[in-house]
């Protein structure tokens, strides 16, 4: 089946949702014991936004806030801001295209905590922008507890984002992440001490951040650069470069035009 385009219109014909519902029917046939979950999460939902709200209500509910209340918060946000649904579709397609473990578009919605945590962050971010900081902090807390991903609602994150495996990802309050970025587990976009104000990294478009990498301080990582796994980045990174090490140093070019899409983590050191 052809992969849907991120740029495809989501008003009227929605190729992302159409593919997910087709895959949901097949999942019910292949694994009947999941049919109830799939029907409730996808096949009885009106659209992708409704499915997201339902699924995340299931995941984030607790004794402190019921599934219905969480779902209501998400549904209200999606109804008021169509950009949330467009960003979620772009994120889902990014996972589908870049993660070799993702074979169906339904998987991020149903099973992948990186995608689910990112959509929860997006709602928290909207609440933060509305001045509803306490509810935003509550969603941040629950997202961290459930998914092991801690994204401050004050951070600004673009679309077309893939967070692979996603365990122990931390993104600080004043961090900025551009569009079409890929990162793996245990990535930290953090500060360097107790300073207040603008203190977190600014990640350009198309950047690839390897597992266990830490980017610290109010520094810029240029577009389409690569940060090798386990690196600690303390200085700005120019566009289209590869950095590696502790502390990280430039070790070569990025290797291709779009490292976040190619997902190539192999280092080719310049002589």
From TrEMBL:
Keywords of this entry: Acyltransferase, Amino-acid biosynthesis, Repeat, Transferase
Catalytic activity reported: L-serine + acetyl-CoA = O-acetyl-L-serine + CoA
Pfam families per record: Hexapep, SATase_N
MF GO annotations: serine O-acetyltransferase activity
Boundaries of every Serine acetyltransferase N-terminal domain copy: 16-120
Gene Ontology CC: cytoplasm
PROSITE patterns tied to this protein: HEXAPEP_TRANSFERASES
Top-rank taxon: Bacteria
Major enzyme class: transferase
GO biological process: cysteine biosynthetic process from serine
Enzyme Commission code(s) on record: 2.3.1.30
Pathway where it operates: Amino-acid biosynthesis; L-cysteine biosynthesis; L-cysteine from L-serine: step 1/2
Family: Belongs to the transferase hexapeptide repeat family.
Name by which UniProt lists this protein: Serine acetyltransferase
């Amino acid at each position: 089946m052809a992969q849907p385009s991120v740029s495809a219109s989501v008003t009227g014909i929605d190729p992302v949702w159409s593919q997910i519902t087709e895959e949901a029917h097949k999942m019910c046939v292949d694994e009947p014991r999941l049919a109830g979950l799939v029907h409730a999460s996808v096949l009885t939902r009106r659209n992708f936004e409704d499915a997201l709200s339902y699924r995340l209500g299931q995941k984030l509910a607790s004794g402190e806030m019921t599934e219905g209340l969480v779902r209501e918060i998400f549904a209200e946000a999606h109804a008021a801001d169509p950009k949330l649904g467009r960003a979620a579709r772009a994120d889902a397609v990014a996972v589908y295209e870049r993660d070799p473990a993702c074979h169906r578009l339904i998987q991020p919605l149903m099973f992948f905590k990186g995608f689910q945590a990112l959509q929860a962050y997006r709602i928290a971010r909207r609440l933060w922008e509305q001045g509803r900081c306490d509810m935003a902090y509550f969603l941040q807390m629950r997202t961290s507890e459930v998914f092991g991903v801690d994204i401050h609602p004050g951070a600004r994150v673009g679309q077309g984002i893939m967070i692979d495996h996603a365990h122990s990802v931390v993104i600080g309050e004043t961090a900025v992440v551009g569009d079409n970025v890929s990162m793996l587990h245990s990535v930290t976009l953090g500060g360097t001490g107790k300073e207040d104000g603008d203190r977190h990294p600014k990640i350009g478009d198309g950047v690839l951040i390897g597992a266990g990498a830490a980017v610290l301080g109010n520094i810029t990582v240029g577009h389409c650069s690569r940060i090798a796994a386990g690196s600690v980045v303390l200085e700005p990174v120019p566009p289209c470069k590869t950095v590696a090490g502790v502390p990280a140093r430039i070790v070569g070019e990025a290797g291709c035009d779009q490292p976040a899409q190619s997902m190539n983590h192999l280092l080719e050191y310049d002589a």
